[in-house]
Amino acid sequence: MEGPGAPRRSGAARPSFDQGLLLNTIRNEMSSQRTDRLSASPPLFESRFLDFFSRVHPSIPAIVFVPVVAVGVWAGFDGGYDALQVAGLFLLGLFIWTLSEYWLHRLVFHWEPDHPLGSRLHFIMHGVHHEHPNDPLRLVMPPAVSIPLAALFLGLFALIFGTPAAYPSFAGFIAGYLTYDYTHYHLHHHVPRTAAGKQLREPHMRHHFQDHRYGYGVSSPLWDYVFRTRSRQLKDR
Question: Which alpha helices (H) appear in the chain, and where do they start and end?
Answer without folding.
Answer: 19-38, 48-52, 60-78, 83-103, 116-122, 128-131, 143-161, 166-189, 195-209, 222-226, 232-235
